């Protein structure tokens, strides 16, 4: 049974690429760390800009890092998901195939 599972996974990526269509650009796996870091920077920039708009600093007087509430972060996540919709769609196609 384990042999069937491992052989199925060996064929999965080429099949997914074949059915993904000509416009599909799959990112290399090595770049995942860079993509995560980039999204983290976007998030930090968003938080910093919102805090600045409120007249607050990134660190409170006590040295504790200032944060935004869930309502404010929902704006960031909505924008992030909209901007990366195609990437997530291709990923879901790859994983569920």
Automatic annotation (TrEMBL):
<dbReference type="GO" id="GO:0097193">
    <property type="term" value="P:intrinsic apoptotic signaling pathway"/>
</dbReference>
<keyword id="KW-0472">Membrane</keyword>
<comment type="similarity">
    <text>Belongs to the COA8 family.</text>
</comment>
<dbReference type="InterPro" id="IPR018796">
    <property type="entry name" value="COA8"/>
</dbReference>
<dbReference type="Pfam" id="PF10231">
    <property type="entry name" value="COA8"/>
</dbReference>
<dbReference type="GO" id="GO:0005743">
    <property type="term" value="C:mitochondrial inner membrane"/>
</dbReference>
<protein>
    <submittedName>
        <fullName>Cytochrome c oxidase assembly factor 8</fullName>
    </submittedName>
</protein>
<keyword id="KW-0809">Transit peptide</keyword>
<keyword id="KW-0496">Mitochondrion</keyword>
<keyword id="KW-0999">Mitochondrion inner membrane</keyword>
């Amino acid at each position: 049974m384990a042999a069937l599972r491992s052989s199925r996974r060996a064929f999965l990526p080429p099949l997914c690429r074949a059915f993904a269509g000509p416009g599909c650009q799959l990112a290399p796996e090595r770049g995942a760390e860079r993509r995560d870091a980039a999204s983290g920077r976007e998030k930090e920039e968003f938080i910093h800009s919102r805090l600045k708009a409120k007249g607050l600093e990134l660190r409170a007087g006590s040295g504790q890092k200032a944060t935004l509430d869930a309502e404010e972060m929902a704006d960031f996540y909505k924008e992030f998901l909209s901007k990366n919709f195609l990437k997530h769609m291709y990923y879901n196609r790859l994983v569920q195939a």
